[in-house]
Amino acid sequence: MFAEKGYHAVGIAEIGKAVGLTRGALYHHISSKEELLYEISVQYISDLVRSGEDILGREVDPEMRILLLSRYLMETIFCNQAEMTVCFREVNSLTGERRRFIARMHLEYQRLWERCIVEGAAKGAFRKITPVEVKGLLGMYFYSFLWLDPKGTVGAGDIADRFAGLVIRSLRP
Amino acid sequence: MFAEKGYHAVGIAEIGKAVGLTRGALYHHISSKEELLYEISVQYISDLVRSGEDILGREVDPEMRILLLSRYLMETIFCNQAEMTVCFREVNSLTGERRRFIARMHLEYQRLWERCIVEGAAKGAFRKITPVEVKGLLGMYFYSFLWLDPKGTVGAGDIADRFAGLVIRSLRP
């Protein structure tokens, strides 16, 4: 519902109705609508951070790391498009500590890509780039929630490999 | 207001109040809330298409074309962040003919970049890439509405030049 109508347009009563709970019963499970938004966001960004740490922990080849990061990120967006739409589009609807936490996790994920590039540069495989350029490269993936078509002819794996190709070429010394 | 709260959360009465008009007086100027959204969207995407046609019409060097497309696109997002947020985030809130027209303009803009790459490839400056990769490269720019900081230390021109550098490297044969 958040993905379809936008977070601010969905009321707590509407959510309750969709899951067959009264407003009071729903508040037994969640403290606020914002908590729901936070739960959705934190799940996916935490999973991306964990996957990134895992990939960097077990793979040392710089180009293969980019390929694996690329595949996991694209699969996540591809298979959870409604949730990822909410994560990306509504990130500014969170407030206070919740907002700060999600922003920190986003930055942590970006830092994993940065580490991958810095370590690749130390091996002579990549050139060094600025954080704003890393944001740009991640934007290639993040923006795809707006155009990905899970029923389309191009699959997540193929898109991920092509994007990894663009990233690796853009990083060549 | 659309950028801040989301299109669906803003009522026509609220818009009228913000501009000091009654609901009736507002409907004298616009036929619907969706028309407002359409007017915002069409203005910027039309401007991008015009600028792209202009750049491709007067510049022939493939790399310089990418640099100029990059600068104009980034300046547009940088200087009109609220409007561009609405354009990108709310594109799926449009319906019928309006939605189709905006989608066509987006595709036309993407085609200008594709033409630039194809003509660059014919000169041996670039390799050919697929439309999905062009979408990816444009995503670098489009996603920036979510993180650009007009009061930050990195200006639009600097970001545009760095992004153009990434694009050009990713296109090297």
UniProtKB/TrEMBL annotation, chains A, B:
Gene3D superfamilies: Homeodomain-like, Tetracycline Repressor, domain 2
Classification via InterPro entries: Homeodomain-like_sf, HTH-type_TetR-like_transc_reg, HTH_TetR, KstR2_TetR_C, Tet_transcr_reg_TetR-rel_C_sf
DNA-binding region: 11-30
GO molecular function terms attached to this record: DNA-binding transcription factor activity; transcription cis-regulatory region binding
Every HTH tetR-type domain range: 1-48
Keywords: DNA-binding, Repressor, Transcription, Transcription regulation
Pfam families noted in UniProt: TetR_C_24 (PF17932), TetR_N (PF00440)
Protein known as: TetR/AcrR family transcriptional regulator
